Amino acid sequence: MPLNPDRVYMLAADHRWQWEEFCDARSLPRERILDVKRLAYEAFLRARQRSSAVRDFGALLVDAQYSAAVIAEALQDGITVGTPAERAGAIPLAWATDPFSAALTGAFVKVLARYRTDDDPGVLAEQWAKLDALQAWCRGARKPLVLEVLVARKQEPEDTFESSGRPAMLAAFIADAYRRGLAPAFWKIEGTLSAEGARTIDTAIAADPGGRQIILGKAAELSTIDRWFAACAASATASGFAIGRSVFWEPSAAYLTGEKTADQAAAVICDNYLRLVEAWDGRKSEV
After folding, report:
1. Number of structural domains, the chain?
2. CA 80 from centroid of its chain's CA atoms
3. How far apart are CA 175 and CA 200, in angstroms?
4. Residue 214's beta-bridge partner residues?
5. Is residue 265 part of a domain?
6. 246 phi-psi bin (left φ>0, alpha ψ -120 to 50, beta other)
7. Residue 217 clears pLDDT 50, i.e. is over it
8. Nearest to 103 by CA among 137, 57, 148
């Protein structure tokens, strides 16, 4: 199934280096990462059984490195599943495989780009070229591109940066991308508590009539994510979310360390995910 442009509830479980660090720190074999990917998938399947909204608009993002079997099963079952193009944790942007197309077996493609307006121009130029190449491949393969943009805070005061600094930098990146002809199907965007900041991002994305955004999680508390949803509720381009660690990290970690069974952990992940689906629907219905 393709991503719906107007509503997306994405369980983003493509984390790799984070789980590698977790396992290494506890002397757990990295093969256990396959288990947490399977756990996320099982929780997603449970959510589909419980929610017609997830059946209609749910999506799963997992990596080919640790989730190849999950991807194959999901595609066979008609589930909307996508894969990341970038090598995990690589700065600057680098591909998970060379050529990058070898890892893009899902129905859509996600890529993570880092940006600040004060970044080195040469590094930015190289990243733009890679993103252009990925978009060209996605268009040829008829796979929607989801472009995640992370903007790091440096010396700026946190409150000001979160409310206006980061939204302004995101808007600048989006405007530059559109000028280059880079127009992903979805922007995967860091949330803001500021309605003004959300309007800044919405206006930038809306410069492309087909532009859409989905909110990422940053491992935030679910209550904080509720407030991000509220801030962007009036945004015409806001279509949903792509959230992972906030939903699955704690129960998955408890499963790996033996504090929870797989069944217990999957139940918690499913409940957390459905809570966000309900929160998104509730915020949007108030507008």
Report:
1. 1
2. 14
3. 11
4. 188, 240
5. yes
6. alpha
7. yes
8. 137
Tokens 């998104």 map to which residue? 280
In the prediction, which pLDDT does 242 show? Answer: 98
Q: pLDDT at position 98, please?
A: 87
Q: And the tokens for 83?
A: 């894969």
Give yes or no for residue 287 having a pLDDT over 70.
no
Question: Does any domain span residue 238?
Answer: yes
In a domain, 3, yes or no: no
pLDDT digit string, tens, across residues 167-199: 999 999 999 999 999 999 999 999 999 999 999
At 140, which CATH number? 3.20.20.70
Q: Which DSSP state fits 103?
A: G
Rounded to an integer, what is the distance from CA 250 to the centroid of its chain? 18
Structural Rg of the chain based on CA atoms: 18
The 8-class DSSP code of residue 2 comes to P
Q: Which contacts (CB < 8 Å, 24+ apart) does range 157-163 have?
A: 162/192, 162/193, 162/194, 162/197, 163/192, 163/193, 163/194, 163/196, 163/197
Predicted TM-score of the model (pTM): 0.96
Give, in order, the Cα–Cα distances in Å from 284 to each of 112, 233, 234, 242. Answer: 26, 5, 8, 16
Q: What's the pLDDT score for residue 285? A: 46
> In which domain, by residue range, is 220 found?
8-285
Q: Are 269 and 173 in contact (CB under 8 A)?
A: no
**pLDDT tens string 231-261:** 999 999 999 999 999 999 999 999 999 999 9
In a domain, 275, yes or no: yes
